[in-house]
Amino acid sequence: MPSRQDIVDRFAGRVPSTFGLEVPGVALRHPGEGVALTFDLCGGPQGEKFDHDLWKLLQELAIPSTFFVNSRWLKANPTLARELGADPLIEIANHGHEHRPLTVDGRAAYGIAGTRDAGAAYDEVAAPVPALTDAAGAAPLWFRSGTAHCDDVGVAIAEALGQVVVNFSINGDAGATFSAQQVVIEVDRAGDGDIVIAHANRPGSGTAGGMALALPAMLERGVTFVQLADALPSVRNPY
Ligand SMILES: [Zn+2]
């Protein structure tokens, strides 16, 4: 794995050309069959909780999914992180260290400043890896930044560190602000190749209730669900 200095040497001075949610190199869909459900665990002042109802639902329905875990959430919930990592239905991925847009010029999204240079982008991607690997038993293959915004140089840095940046084709809960009915409308339209984003750190939001309405009906009509590891080529496992 490249060192911090390797990344700084290679990427310092690179000027980003694109910024946002849909930057070239970011996976928005997957090429396989099935729906990839992804849940962010953001951490921070409003986001260190855990939606046990959601996890219970996924277990009861035996639906695989991918959880993007931020360092702040992991630090607040070390035991729970290990329990999630031990659940064969759950794949653990990287949701960053300080929950910032992954940039090399500090560009902000929703008022949250991005990482300010290549070294800070390295830290955002690399710093969570030891604790995530410890919790999951395997190094993360996927990275999603805080706010899901990034620039193209940030995407290249994540890739150099062995992680593909993954965003989404369906916004399942709009940062856990949707009502259960809104969650149903969005999640229910997911099909083969879609990557759905939602949140597992906001118990009491409409997310678990919406999933509880949407997912059984989808299973009933034959929709299948996949973890990203089984559906998306990674930097380390290209196929
Ligand atoms: Zn987040």
Q: Would you mind describing this structure in some detail?
A:
By secondary structure, this protein is α/β, with parallel strands linked by helices. It has one domain (4-10, 25-230): Glycoside hydrolase/deacetylase (TIM Barrel). The chain has helices at 4-11, 52-60, 71-76, 78-86, 118-126, 129-136, 152-160, 180-188, 207-220; strands at 19-20, 36-41, 65-69, 90-94, 142-143, 150-151, 164-165, 170-171, 195-199. It has a 5-stranded parallel β-sheet. Strands 1-6 form a two-stranded antiparallel sheet. Helix 2 (52-60) links the parallel strand 2 and strand 3 (65-69). The longest helix has 14 residues, at 207-220. The mean pLDDT is 97.
Tell me briefly what this model is:
The chain is α/β, with parallel strands linked by helices and about 240 residues long.
CATH topology (fold) name: TIM Barrel
Helix fraction, binned, reads: 25-40%
Mean pLDDT: 97
The beta-strand count equals 9
Structural class: alpha/beta
Order of helices and strands: HEEHEHHEHHEEHEEHEH
**Major β-sheet annotation:** 5 strands, parallel
Shape: globular
Please give the count of helices: 9
Low-confidence runs (pLDDT<50, min 5 residues)?
none
The CATH top-level class label: Alpha Beta
What ions, cofactors and ligands are bound? Answer: zinc ion
End-to-end gap = 21 Å
Superfamily at the CATH H level?
Answer: Glycoside hydrolase/deacetylase
State the oligomer: single chain
Second CATH tier, the architecture: Alpha-Beta Barrel
Trace the largest sheet across and list its strands.
Answer: 4-3-2-9-8
Gyration radius over CA: 17 Å
User: How many structural units, i.e. domains?
Assistant: 1
DSSP strand (E) fraction?
A: 5-15%
